[in-house]
Design a protein that fits this description.
Residues 9-101 form the Sulphur oxidation protein SoxZ domain. The chain is mostly beta strands and 104 residues long. The protein contains no helices and 7 strands. The protein starts with 5 loop residues before the first strand and ends with a strand.
Amino acid sequence: MAAAPILIRAQSQGERALVRVLMAHEMESGQRKDGDGRTIPAWHIHEVLVTLQGRPVLTMRWGPSVSKNPFLRFVLRGAKPGDRVGVSWTDTRGERRDAEAVVA
């Protein structure tokens, strides 16, 4: 599987930044069956980490109920133009992705 990107945008709104993140991932719950009736194994993002200027500001633990290609939208207080916002995730197979954006 080719490395699917994380698309991230951070826009300044005074003393805070609006951050939008789109993560490409299949997010299998482990409850669906394939065409032959076999259960498709669970495979989903289980941890997401958000950093501001390299310091962790948000950690999320996810389960199989999160939808395919999850989209996040949140506000970071204390972020200003030029600051770097990073997002990384790890899934149940141990795959990792990360991306960074500069607050515009």
